[in-house]
Amino acid sequence: MKKSKSIKIGLQEQTQRFSLVVLLAIVCFCVLLIAVLLAIGLIFLLIRLKVFEGVPQEIRMSNIVLILILTSAVMGWALVLLLGKIPLKPINKLVNGLNSLATGNFKTRISYKGPLGNHPTFHEITESFNKLAKELESTEMLRSDFINNFSHEFKTPIVSIAGFAKLLKKGNLSEEQKIQYLDAIEEESMRLSYMATNILNMTKIENQEILTDITEFNLSEQVRFAVLLLEEKWTKKRIELQLDFEEYMIEANEELLKQVWINLIDNAVKFASASATVALDIKDTEKTFLISVSNTGTDIPKEKQKNIFHKFYQADESHAQEGNGIGLAIVKKIADLHNGKVSFQSENGLTVFTVELPKKQRS
Questions:
Q1: Can you give the residue ranges of every domain in the chain?
Q2: Cα separation of 322 and 270, whole Å?
Q3: What angle do CA 255, 259, 264 make, to 5 degrees?
Q4: What would the CATH number be for the domain defined by 145-206?
Q5: Averaged in consecutive runs of 10 residues, what is the pLDDT profile of the chain (363 residues)?
Q6: Of 17, 49, 202, 305, which residue is least crowded by CB atoms under 10 Å?
């Protein structure tokens, strides 16, 4: 059904574009016809003025043909110069718009008015160009936000480490204070390491289009291992972990999938309320596994939900929570590489992220 609908839309688009070609051909034909008619009119005028009187018949005919050719060429060229601006105007508008985008002005938009604006092909050009400009503007905003957010996220732990190191260097501290400052330095160092690792992981998979290193392994064991890796974080917030699943085997890239669970569990713990519950579940369907990670806490704002899988985007603009907006982008990219998908729901204090993955990657 979808295929036939797609074919129908494709034929419709081809018909619309062909009609534009026919329209331009008609314009060219009209220009040529007008030029020839003007040339013929000029010849009749010369005949009536008896310009060729007394000229031998053979020479007269050759002169008439020569005048017809030259006049048609001159008139045609003049008409092209005069009328050429009309068909070239929409093309000039498109080229100017593209040049504006190339200079970094992503607020550029184009629109066509009159008969051209109503033509389906020009309507399609307008929609495609404006959609492109909007996406570029959005990407530029995300990039700018990332620079601001990332510099803030990196600067905070570096300043903390430097500050506690200075205090330790001064001496005259009790053993309890020394341990406290060293713990803070260790925590901030691990925070820097986590951010750097996420950026390296994103760089590694960003341009990867083919899934490699596919092996069969225990999915349930991998999820439990990710929970243990983050034990310090969820025990610190007194989070209760609920793991409800049996043993399942999957074909996938083991190293990449490990990043998915670490990022999702870390996010769930990070945004869960203190002493709340984080639940993990694996459902077995006919051809896929549905792995869900849920937490109770503050909902993701409705107006920000559409951007959470974008690279560098952070829903928490106050920086109250640590992070650099890369984790969920990594999750989505890895799921896409596995021919899977990621979805989420966030309402009434419950946020659930679900990853759907094929059981088999190799046919």
A1: 2-136, 145-206, 214-358
A2: 8
A3: 150
A4: 1.10.287.130
A5: 47 58 66 71 70 62 68 67 62 81 85 70 80 80 66 78 88 86 87 77 74 90 92 88 90 91 90 88 92 88 75 50 66 90 89 92 70
A6: 49
Domains 145-206 and 214-358 share a fold: no
pLDDT in the model for residue 311:
59
Of the candidates 155, 65, 139, 68, the one whose C-alpha atom is nearest the C-alpha of residue 106 is 139
Residues counted in the chain? 363
Pairing of strands 214-218, 249-253: antiparallel
CB-based contacts of 119: which residues, under 8 Å, 6+ apart? Answer: 16, 19, 20, 23
Non-local CB neighbours of 55 within 8 Å, separated by 6+ positions: 63
**C-alpha–C-alpha distance, residues 244 and 238, integer Å:** 19
Q: Which residues fall within 8 angstroms of residue 104, CB to CB, at 6 or more apart?
A: 140
The residue whose two tokens read 């260790």 is 186
Q: Tell me the CB-side half-sphere exposure of residue 136, using CA atoms within 13 A.
A: 17
Which structure tokens are listed for 219?
């999915």
Q: What pTM does this model have?
A: 0.54
Interhelix angle 85-102/120-170, nearest 10 degrees: 10
For residue 190, give every residue at least 6 positions away whose Cβ sits within 8 Å of its Cβ, in sequence order, or none: none
Determine how many CB atoms are found less than 10 A away from the CB of residue 237. 14
Best CA proximity match to 265, nearest among 142, 355, 153, 156: 355
> How far is CA 106 from its chain centroid?
14
Q: Nearest to residue 338, comparing CAs of 281, 255, 264?
A: 255
The pair of structure tokens assigned to 174 is 């009790």
Reply yes or no on domain 214-358 having CATH 3.30.565.10. yes
> Are residues 336 and 265 in contact, defined by beta-carbon separation less than 8 angstroms?
no
